[in-house]
UniProtKB/TrEMBL annotation:
UniProt cross-references to InterPro entries, sorted A to Z: PDZ, PDZ_sf, Pept_M50_Zn, Peptidase_M50
Membrane topology (UniProt): Multi-pass membrane protein
Family according to the record: Belongs to the peptidase M50B family.
Residue span, PDZ domain: 106-195
Enzyme Commission number(s): 3.4.24.-
Stored Pfam families: Peptidase_M50 (PF02163)
Primary site of residence: membrane
Cofactor: Zn(2+)
GO CC entries: membrane
GO molecular function, one term: metalloendopeptidase activity
Protein name (database record): Zinc metalloprotease
Keyword match Plastid: no
Alphabetical keyword list: Hydrolase, Membrane, Metal-binding, Metalloprotease, Protease, Transmembrane, Transmembrane helix, Zinc
Annotated source species: Candidatus Giovannonibacteria bacterium RIFCSPHIGHO2_02_43_13
Amino acid sequence: MLITLLIFFVILLVLVLSHEAGHFFSARAFGINVEEFGFGLPPRMFGIKSKKGILYSFNWLPFGGFVKITGEEGGETSDPTNFSAKPAWIRATVLASGIAMNLLLAYIVFSIITGLGTYEAIDDKDAATYPDAKVTIIQVLQNSPASEAALMEGDQILNVVSEANSLTPKNIEEVQKFIANHKGKELLLMIKRNGNEFTKIITPRKNPPEGEGPMGVALALLHIKKAQWYLTPIEGAKLTWSATAATAEGFWGLIKSAFEKEDRKDLQIAGPVGIFNLTASARSMGITTLLTFLALLSINLAIINILPIPGLDGGRLFFVIIEAIRGKRISMQASSWIHGVGLAILIILMLAITFHDLSKIF
């Protein structure tokens, strides 16, 4: 638990620092004054002021971070260090730089992953071509024999024993047939998890719910695919593109579902507590999965921030675009009020999601 908590905060710190560093360094590069670099959202826990007058603060609400830039709320001024005094293209660049940094972080992480090796699913018919391939659990259904036996995603099935019968599986079909022939009987599974081997006792159901199977798991035949070091930048770019496209498609589906009338209980939205639980699951599946989790979170953060939501980068960027089109600034009062209300709604939403996460646990 303690190690998972530490990993969770490291992931959160990396995500926040990378995003806000984009705003921070781009603002500094354009000569814009930065007042505060905050980790988390106020109220403030403590802060340290640098010699250049920048306050580096740690705040109580762990829902992200912020960079406070002079003049970000608008207004007319001739001060060259003021954000609002800069032309629209500079302001847009500073606002978009956090999103760019999150995508860059995902690309760097994915490039590292391709060098370490990524899991690739293969068909049973190709098992002989990949002798390192292992039958792996990729999903454990709730209230199933697998769940009761504490099996986890990422567990590799090395051996299955039932009385005098034994199987060292080379493909998924072998496992499915063996289990089907031993429904209702106690099985001894040899499992490999994070390099450690151990046994689990499980009794497959004779009459499982439709679509769940006797054990209540989904299986895949996985092998590790490694890219040559000189190809990792290219493979990393491919992974980043496909992950970004898939995440954007998922967000679009989520937005469309908000306007649909049918019940959407299947939607999965996680707050800090939910992400902590996902961190524990990713950690149990090894460093590659944990790094993949970090990269996907970074892409999620980038896409959320590019949406035209008041209080987020996308909302402020939308205002700059409107100003550029109409050739007139939006008043400081209106900008401050709209983004303030947007931020308040986002905090309330995050608190509600956190409560939802806690309710599922307790």
